[in-house]
Amino acid sequence: MKTDPAKLRFGALLRKYRNRAGMTQQELARAAAVSQSAVSELETGAKGTTRDYVARLDAALIARGVLVNSWDAYFSPNGTINYFKEIAERELNAPEIREYGLGLIPGLVQTECYARTFTQLGSPFATPKEVDAMVLTRMRRQEILDRPHPPVLTVLLDESTIMRTFSDPAVMRAQINRLITLSYRPRVTIQVVPMMAEGHLGLEGSFKLMTVSGGEELAYIEGHATGLTIKEPRLVQSYKRLFGELQGAALTVPDSRARMAEIRGEVP
């Protein structure tokens, strides 16, 4: 029987943190109040587990939520769309993340209310419980920004994205407040690409760039019902150039804050 690749990746991550902590499987099992066989089976990808068990392992290894977030990314029911799972895992340990948003605020900087609104729009047949799971997973992804040493995050937003209106005006007002607040964090940059900027390739859609473990760089683009991770260096470089061009066309950080505050006041 073929082993689930997700279980193998999670097992490798658990083993990495156990070795980093200098613990044997038996020592970890004792510290987390689980059986040694459970630890062994997890590390080899032989079996899955529950979130409660993962939380105990995370606490015992002082992994600061990395194991829990990784488990959520791979296995939480309805929490993460399958094609996004690899990106969600890479995001956990990425030292630098750059995102361009056209039409949708990137997940790492969304408010819970904004995330819920778009989840309900994008998954109209999902049950309330399924919507709750998807929103919760997205909110947990944001925990990487609250770590002692968070990733360097740069977010470029097409101006039209923050001018979007909803039936409840409070959704976008709260979202803009969140963006402005985040923009004051030392390792976070948020800039607005004005609609007055001349036509550019960014109009083709949103994308994400990440520097991951070992210095590898990748790009990710997502459509309505699918996503694509790009690792081919030539293509990744083309997205890096595009990001640079978009940032060059964007307002400065202070001017971006002022424009977002202005739009916030215009929301009916």
Instruction: Note the overall shape.
Output: globular
What integer is the average pLDDT? 85
Order of helices and strands: HHHHHHEHHEHHEEEEHH
Number of distinct helices: 12
Tell me about this structure.
This protein has 268 residues and is α/β, with parallel strands linked by helices. It has two domains: 5-75, 434 Repressor (Amino-terminal Domain) (Orthogonal Bundle); 85-266, 2-Layer Sandwich (Endonuclease, Chain A), CATH 3.30.870. The protein contains twelve helices and six strands. Strands 3-2-1-4-5-6 form a six-stranded mixed β-sheet, with helices on both faces. A hairpin with a 4-residue loop joins β5 (217-222) and β6 (227-230). α2 (25-32) packs across α4 (51-61), α4 packs antiparallel against α5 (66-75) and α10 (170-182) packs antiparallel against α12. The longest helix has 17 residues, at 5-21. The chain is globular and about 60 Å long. The protein starts with a helix and ends with a helix.
Question: Which features would summarize this protein structure in a list?
Answer:
12 helices, 6-stranded mixed sheet, alpha/beta, 2 domains, 434 Repressor (Amino-terminal Domain), 268 residues, Endonuclease, Chain A
